[in-house]
Design goal:
325 residues; alpha/beta; eight-stranded mixed beta sheet; 11 helices; elongated
């Protein structure tokens, strides 16, 4: 049951093809767990945010309380990509300006301005914000739910911690070689062997960044701490993409522990919907065969817009009571 999954994990990623209801499922599961007494932080990493629409209120990059029930609550964040990038590069620039001589400041700033739009800068900055939110929520929230962007974007994002950790370790190894050479040179000419303060600060910065990504990587690949819920609908393309997502998550070492098939057509509401239901069964059979023993929860097509706590409550009831197949 999805509520058991929420109770037993520290982090849940909710992802899948665009337009299948990832945000509604994320928000409704957060609400269900808050009613169970959980302290939940739900975070949208999708540049095209819908989390605020789901809660029927304006959200931002800062935490906002969107639901309270006795001891439980839901805080929500929509990661602002541009604000994240600006904050990320402002931090990098401040560090660089302290480390570099004044004559190099202009060229360094020019380089940073160009880097803001370089491929991968968006994902890197968003990942920094994800790591930061996981870190700061450790003592204040029982569960962090990430409402993610469509599959390709999310899978690239989840592969980044390992790549960035490796890249940072390479930089540190390069610094170590350089420092050993400089120390040897200083011993030959008899100068003081203290580590220059600029090098020490750069090393501390790199180590802190490496440790943050390493912690995130270890959390994301720990199946006891983190799981991925794949959301789909029973149509050909979303099912094909869901199968692909499960395979790629497995290759990344990430636990895909549940699949939610959203908006199932009723079988007793006319011939058109009955025919549609029959086709959905064919796609579901393909999904079941491809994903092995991963539990599948089916949610019926619900009337009305899923916006606001009352509407999300209806979806939450289905999420926690629907039998898993």
């Amino acid at each position: 049951m999805l509520l058991d999954l929420a109770r037993s994990r520290r982090i849940l990623f909710v992802g899948g093809k665009g337009g299948v209801g990832k945000t509604s499922v994320s928000a409704a599961l957060a609400l269900a767990y808050a009613r169970d007494g959980g302290r939940v932080l739900v975070v949208s990493t999708d540049p095209a945010h819908n989390l605020g629409h789901a809660w029927d209120r304006q959200l931002s990059d800062g935490l906002a309380r969107v639901f309270t029930h006795e001891d439980g609550f839901v805080d929500a964040v929509e990661i602002d990509p541009q604000a994240t990038i600006e904050r990320h590069f402002a931090t990098v620039a401040a560090t660089m300006m302290r480390l570099l001589p004044d004559r190099l400041h202009a060229s360094a700033q020019q380089h940073l301005d160009q880097a803001k739009s370089a491929p991968g800068s968006h994902e890197s900055a968003v990942l920094e914000r994800i790591a930061e939110l996981v870190e700061i929520s450790r003592d204040t929230h029982d569960l962090v739910i990430f409402d993610t962007a469509p599959s390709g974007h999310t899978l690239r994002l989840l592969s980044l911690p390992e790549k960035l950790t490796t890249w940072t370790e390479t930089l540190l190894a390069s610094r170590d070689r350089s420092e050993r050479f400089a120390a040897a040179a200083r011993s030959v000419v008899g100068t003081k062997d203290d580590e220059p303060s600029a090098d020490a600060e750069l090393r501390r910065t790199l180590i802190a960044r490496r440790d943050r990504f390493e912690l995130l990587r270890s959390l994301v690949t720990d199946s006891l701490a983190t799981s991925f819920i794949v959301v789909s609908i029973a149509e050909r393309l979303p099912v094909a993409e869901s199968i692909d997502v499960v395979q790629q998550l497995t290759e990344l070492g990430i636990d895909a522990s549940s699949i939610v098939v959203n908006r199932r057509s009723p079988s007793d509401a006319g011939e058109v919907l009955a025919d549609r239901r029959a086709r959905e069964e064919e796609h579901l059979a393909r999904l079941r065969e491809a994903v092995g023993g991963i539990p599948i929860t089916q949610i019926p097509l619900l009337a009305g817009d899923l916006a606001g706590a009352d509407a999300l409550s209806e979806l939450a009831e289905h999420l926690v009571t629907a039998p898993e197949l």
